[in-house]
Amino acid sequence: MTIVIKNGTVVTADRTWKADVLIDGDKIVDVGPDLDGDEVIDASGAYVMPGGIDPHTHMEMPFMGTFSADDFDSGTAAALAGGTTMTVDFCLPGPGQGLIDALQTWYQKAGKARTDYSFHMAITWWGEQVFDEMPKVVSQGINTFKHFMAYKGALMVNDDEMFASFSRCAEIGAMPLVHAENGDVVAFLQQKLMAEGNNGPEGHAYSRPPEVEGEAVNRAIMIADQAGVPLYVVHTSCEQAHEAIRRARQKGMRVFGEPLIQHLTLDESEYFNPDWQHAARRVMSPPFRNKMHQDSLWAGLAAGSLQVVATDHCAFSDEQKRMGVGDFTKIPNGTGGLEDRLPVLWTRGVRTGRLTMNEFVAVTSTNIAKILNIYPKKGAILPGADADIIIWDPAATKTISAKTQKSAIEYNVFEGIEVTGLPVMSFSRGRLAYKEGDVRADTGDGRFVERPANAPVNTALSTWKELTAPRKVERSGIPAGV
Ligand code: DUC
Ligand code: ZN
Ligand code: ZN
Ligand code: ZN
């Protein structure tokens, strides 16, 4: 059975043109004029684009004494309703737990996924077992390792552990990811604020200023450079972090930055809302920033110094957020966004002229497919690619509301925002997975996507390797020992 999407305008990261798209089974088999198929989908007036890929989600994540509220079922339903056809979650081994052991839990959780999915492996502790298991993780199709530089006493790893892990990544064709915030300084500021009586959600923002993020990004870049490995900085939220990334790139280093749709569009004034619950709902790390930082992130996406827009989708219910009444450090960190990423980015980015349509596709799909080594299976409208396709109506409008969302929680941080530009249909590997408000894909329809190792890339600057390659000097005149 073939399906042809006719009369639409195909928009990819490279170009925009009138063409039909022919799907046979789970693949795109032809793109061009006047194609015929068994079933015809009329895309007149609409754009035909690669499905979104969200490389940063946390479903059913054990975190801060609870589990994030969306599982792979509700979370990937939200994804499909928002035009995202693939998600990448984080596998988090517990203290002392093996990587392969932890992966079993994540495969099990992801059995409920409606979209295709992949995982990043988190390095939450360091030891011989982790060192030994990293290549086994890569051989299972996971080529990225995440490092938390914050969450001291829980997920945080220190510089020596990061350097060891980054060096291992370099050997095995994997790429390290960092959550970049100086966890020691955050922990100190949290204690200080609490001691001074600043226990409300605004304390969260004060405890994680942009400087702590900028410092950690610079440090991670230095460590990656010494290890000779590319680096991906998740949730790049501020100018200090962006500056470090663009400076590194200008020196020829492969460093990637990932702003979130939340940081691009929501600002720190949310934490000063007199309603505790309103502010607590928006507690995430890094926190929302001011307009200056937002402008920096938008500029980075246009300039190419930042490459990807993600969500860090990590939803917590009001009841869960209330764990932090009287102590902001106990408010579970995280917000949703999977259903809203593409419509909000289109509305605030493409419709305002900050991004072209092609840049929109690049930052929501194609760039991350390349970075994660799954292009052109994903992120492309090309013969041979998986038929993960969205049909996008640029004139469709809605007001974002928790009442109609697929996420399991009772609120939405984008509540009330009017969006213009929505997916009307999403296809996942050739099957209609979403149509006009209705998720058609079943729980369990998603498949694990293997991401092969990259050829190891030494991204070192021109001189350091030479300087650090040890050369023993034969010496005379050594003073007699004492
Ligand atoms: N930040 C969040 O807000 N939630 C999950 C983990 C993280 O780093
Ligand atoms: Zn993080
Ligand atoms: Zn995250
Ligand atoms: Zn099905």
Describe, in short, the structure shown.
The chain has 482 residues and is an alpha/beta fold.
Ends distance:
86 Å
Number of strands: 20
The assigned CATH architecture is Alpha-Beta Barrel
Unreliable stretches, pLDDT < 50, 5 or more residues?
A: none
Largest sheet: 7 strands, mixed
Mean pLDDT: 96
What does this structure look like?
Its EC number is 3.5.2.2. Keywords: Hydrolase, Metal-binding, Zinc. One of its GO terms (molecular function) is dihydropyrimidinase activity. The protein has helices at about 70-80, 100-110, 130-140, 160-170, 185-195, 200-205, 210-225, 240-250, 260-265, 275-280, 290-305, 320, 340-350, 355-370, 465-470, and strands at about 1-5, 10, 15-20, 20-25, 25-30, 40, 45-50, 50-55, 60-65, 65, 85-90, 115-120, 145-150, 175-180, 230-235, 255, 390-400, 420-430, 430-435, 440. With about 475 residues, it is an alpha/beta fold. It has a single domain (about 50-440, about 445-460), classed as TIM Barrel. The chain has a 7-stranded mixed β-sheet with strand order 3-2-7-17-18-19-20. Strands 8-11-12-13-14-15-16 form a 7-stranded parallel β-sheet. The protein has a 4-stranded mixed β-sheet with strand order 5-4-1-6, with no helix packed on it. Strand 12 (about 115-120), helix 3 (about 130-140) and strand 13 form a beta-alpha-beta unit. The site of one zinc ion has 4 residues, from loops.
